[in-house]
Specification:
Shape: globular
Strand order of the largest sheet: 1-4-5-6-10-9-8-7
Low-confidence stretches: 1-18
Structural class: alpha+beta
Strand content: 35-45%
């Protein structure tokens, strides 16, 4: 049932993101799914169920995605042919999870996707991984991002942030790094 709820929630986010209703996330401690994070600034949040996207200037410029407690055999992202999306497996290595991430984001609108600097990292006091990534949209916009996550109790949690290489990624990178550093499981 939780899997169905996640699929419906993420499907909703993907398909109506452009016209969805944002809510204000005030500075301070915020619960995001099974994580709590600390932010020093306000964000706009689009959410449905346990899927969350934060932005300040708009999703096409930059955004933080929070994926929490992704269960075995669930896709990372929904909305681009759910049945054909690669699925998370609880025994995946960090290399396989990075490939899952890359393959999940691959679409006609993304070109030249590259994962860089995959390495071990602590995520919310859990052994995890971190990597950077770059890609170009079909419109020719260069984007860059960071992802950090880990598997706890056979479930994947991941925070990833990406934005336009020109201006927006760097504009909020320090704040995002602080949010990531503050992440704790509830």
């Amino acid at each position: 049932m939780k899997s169905l709820a996640r699929v419906l929630s993420l499907s909703f986010l993907v398909f109506v993101a452009a016209c969805g209703q944002y809510t204000l996330v005030k500075p301070g401690k915020v619960k995001v799914g099974d994580l709590s994070v600390q932010s020093s600034m306000a964000w706009s949040q689009l959410s449905s169920g346990d899927a969350y996207i934060w932005t300040v200037d708009g999703q096409f410029l930059h955004e933080i995605y929070f994926v929490t407690d992704l269960e075995d055999n669930e896709p990372l992202l929904i909305g681009r042919g759910e049945d054909n999306q690669p699925k998370f497996k609880s025994g995946m290595t960090s290399i396989e999870i990075a490939d899952l991430f890359k393959n999940s984001l691959a679409s006609k609108s993304v070109r030249d996707f590259e994962i860089k600097n995959l390495r071990p990292a602590t995520f919310a006091a859990t052994e995890g991984f971190r990597f950077e990534f770059d890609y170009r949209t079909s419109d020719g916009v260069d984007k860059t991002g960071i992802a950090i996550g880990g598997v706890r109790n056979k479930k994947l949690s991941l925070i990833f942030y990406h934005g336009t290489r020109l201006h927006y990624f760097d504009r909020y990178k320090d704040e995002v790094e602080a949010i990531i550093a503050s992440a704790k499981f509830s």
